[in-house]
From TrEMBL:
It is a multi-pass membrane protein. The chain crosses the membrane at residues 12-29, 67-91, 97-118, 154-174, 214-236, 256-278. It comes from the Archaea. This is Sugar ABC transporter permease. Keywords: Membrane, Transmembrane, Transmembrane helix, Transport. CDD domains: TM_PBP2. The keyword DNA-binding does not apply. The lineage of its organism: Archaea, Thermoproteota, Thermoprotei, Thermofilales, Thermofilaceae. One of its GO terms (biological process) is transmembrane transport. It is found in: Cell membrane; Membrane.
Length: 284
């Protein structure tokens, strides 16, 4: 009796064994190794890598660039996605085609998107050629180079806004489809303006969708790698590119693990703040 009960339980757990072994080997072991490298003294100095990078002069620059990128890109994408949601909520001719082209960047990888924008914004790219032909500028606009880091940052923002706004839009637009149209129609009947409907009806009902959209997009923004590396190189270091640089160029695995650990800690902290701030109160 006991053996048969154990056999039934084992049979239920049997399908989980392959995935457990896979996750343990390919994720669990590297994660444990990275934590060990980041939190234990290494090298001749015996300094803990995490402490070394936090106290370095480069830390504040890397962290500041990362947070600045998130602070600019995420609100911009949220505003664009919300505006697009309100636009596509209306019926107009060619709506399906416009919707298709709006979400098309979802199919483009971050590397391909960055290369596309690099080609378009280069001194001999499409944008500069168009502006020169129209006589808007007398010489090409410089978007790249250490002396033009502010323009490199603008190029990164444009690339990310074009590529990833659709991620936020899909979440918010799906949430908008769940709103009862009778509520919006009733608000119109009672004379609420568009701003009042948006503030008191649409946004509160979209709160769960906004929470998931902002959470997903912020987590991805904290780990932005390819667009920054392709469009700015190491001129604008962020957490992901600094991790790559320390590991691939300096061959310092412990400090690279420490930078990766910071990404994980920051990601967890930001997600916790989102969940707390945007939580939906329980109705008693």
């Amino acid at each position: 009796m006991v053996f048969s009960r154990f056999a039934r339980r084992f049979a239920l757990l049997l399908p989980l064994i392959p995935s457990t072994l896979y996750l343990s080997f390919f994720i669990g072991y590297p994660l444990a190794q990275s934590l060990y490298w980041a939190l234990t003294p290494s090298g001749g100095s015996g300094e803990i890598p995490l402490v070394a990078i936090v106290t370095s002069k480069r830390f504040l620059e890397v962290l500041g660039n990362t947070l600045l990128l998130v602070a600019v890109v995420v609100p911009l994408q949220f505003v664009l996605a919300l505006a697009a949601t309100l636009l596509f909520a209306e019926s107009f001719r060619g709506k399906e085609i416009a919707l298709y082209f709006f979400v098309l960047p979802l199919a483009v990888s971050d590397v391909a998107a960055a290369l596309l924008w690099y080609t378009m914004l280069s001194p001999r790219g499409f944008l500069n050629k168009l502006l020169l032909e129209l006589g808007v500028v007398s010489q090409p606009i410089q978007f790249f180079g250490y002396a033009f880091r502010h323009m490199e940052f603008l190029a990164i923002v444009l690339c990310e806004a074009w590529r990833a706004t659709a991620i936020v839009f899909v979440n918010i637009y799906a949430g908008y489809q769940m709103i009862d149209r009778e509520l919006i129609e009733a608000s119109e009947v009672f004379g609420l303006s568009f701003a009042q409907r948006l503030r008191h009806i649409i946004l509160p009902l979209l709160k769960p969708s906004i929470e998931s959209a902002l959470l997903i997009r912020t987590l991805f923004a904290l780990q932005t790698f390819a667009p920054v590396l392709i469009l700015a190189g190491l001129d604008i270091p962020v957490l992901a590119t600094e991790t790559f640089y320390v590991y691939a160029q300096l061959f310092d695995a412990p400090k690279a693990s420490a930078w990766a650990l910071l990404i994980g800690v920051l990601t967890f902290a930001v997600s916790s703040v989102y969940v707390y701030v945007l939580r939906t109160p329980r109705v008693r």
